[in-house]
Amino acid sequence: MSATVPGRDAHRMTTIYWRLWWAAGIDAIGDGVLTAAIPLLAITLTADPRLVALLSAATYLPWLLLSLPTGALADRCDRATLMWRTQTVQALLTTVAAVLAALGGLSLPALMTITFGLGACEVVVGTAGQAILPDLVERPLLHKANGHQQAITTVGQQFAGPPLGSLLFAAAAALPLTVDAATFALSAALLAGLPGRPPALRQPTRVIDGIRLLAGQKLLRTLAVLLAVNTFCGQLGNATLVLLATQILHLSARGYGLLLAGAAVGSVLGGLLNARLAAKIGTHCALYAALSANVLIFPAIGLSPNALVLSVLLAANGFVTTLWNIVTVSLRQELVPPGLLGRVTSVYKMLGWGLMPLGALAGGLVADVFGLRAPYPIAGLLRGAALLAATPALRHVNRRR
Predict the structure, then answer these.
(1) Residues 41 and 83 in one domain
(2) What is the pTM of this model?
(3) C-alpha to C-alpha distance for 28 and 54, rounded to whole angstroms
(4) DSSP, res 194
(5) What is the pLDDT of residue 214?
(6) Are residues 166 and 304 in the same domain?
(7) Do 268 and 321 touch, CB atoms closer than 8 A?
(8) Is residue 111 included in any domain, yes or no?
(9) How far apart are CA 204 and CA 184, in angstroms?
(10) I want to staple 87 with a disulfide (CB 3.0 to 4.6 A). Which of 188, 213, 390, 400 is the partner?
């Protein structure tokens, strides 16, 4: 069981948790601002799509390269201190970018370097953020706490942040970077007020210990493999979603933005409601409901006859994907000893984000050979096969808690 901290309560969320929640929300807005601002900055520096794609790769590459050592760092260090210091670095990086943009000295190599640095910091904050939650709330509240975190992150990254980033960029190229630096600084200030971990938990760590625990625990190993399949298949479908929406269903650019907002609605509702749903139907049923629903939803997305149906299906996908996230993160937090949680989480992050570029590449190839509707049905078949293979390990999940 995780350590007791001041103000912790077994029956309700405390002010300590809400401080973490506010920090996550403010950080998510900053991430959303960058989601819009970085590509807009890139196209002012180059029209070469290969270079723009390289900038995108620089964003996700740290998850593949740094996840494992970051997990060990999150287990070795005080997690709250690690998070606020890392966010301070993010604030400094975006401040440098803002100054360069204001002076007209922001080059594409500089933007790529800063983007990679911000991505590396996000690996640290994301890994430590999941590992610290059991230190701050009791086990019965983990589903609820993860649901709140998922909801506020979605609101910031998909609703509030991107439109704000676009509006600020239209006013001045340096403005979204300046605002982003402020959000990182404010989030860091909130995180600095979180309680530290007891010294007994600060001990020498090895990355291999987390890998061994994951490999030796059948349920966790199965969930990790399913995550890898899910993220690969998700990108296999989503890589060409914009082409499906605009070329096949004839949506405008504005209509495509509204389509993505529909998907975000499902994710937000999932973050607010899925903790209660998981508690009501049980962890086993919740996992099966989420996995089975997406096996059906993915082919249906590819066969969507119009934009309205596509929007509803994307929202449903967002809802059940959030259910999967809440349940699996909570399971991992319950089953993994606190001293190993950072390293085990880092393996999950490496699998979940590291395979996204490969899934996107596969989706592009499938769409080119078989047509723009084909990636989603193929992804659904792959997810169905993975679910069948994982059924024996998932069958008694409630008994293992």
Answers:
(1) yes
(2) 0.68
(3) 23
(4) S
(5) 77
(6) no
(7) no
(8) yes
(9) 30
(10) 188
> Do residues 142 and 10 touch, judged by C-beta distance below 8 A?
no
Taking only the tens place, the pLDDT of each residue in 71-117 is: 878 888 888 999 999 999 999 999 999 999 999 899 989 999 999 99
What pLDDT does 4 receive? 45
* Count of beta carbons in the 10 Å neighbourhood of residue 160: 17
d(CA 350, CA 347): 5
By residue range, what is the domain housing residue 169? 15-201
Enumerate residues 6+ apart whose C-beta is below 8 A from 309.
Answer: none
d(CA 353, CA 365): 20
Runs of H (alpha helix) within 173-252: 175-191, 207-216, 218-238, 241-243
Tokens for 269?
Answer: 């509702």
CA 190, distance to chain mean position in Å, is 21
- Sequence-ordered list of residues with C-beta below 8 angstroms from that of 49, at least 6 positions apart, any chain: none
State which of 173, 201, 229 marks the end of a domain: 201
Is the domain of 253 the same as that of 185? no
Q: Is the dihedral of CA 301, 304, 307, 313 positive or negative?
A: negative
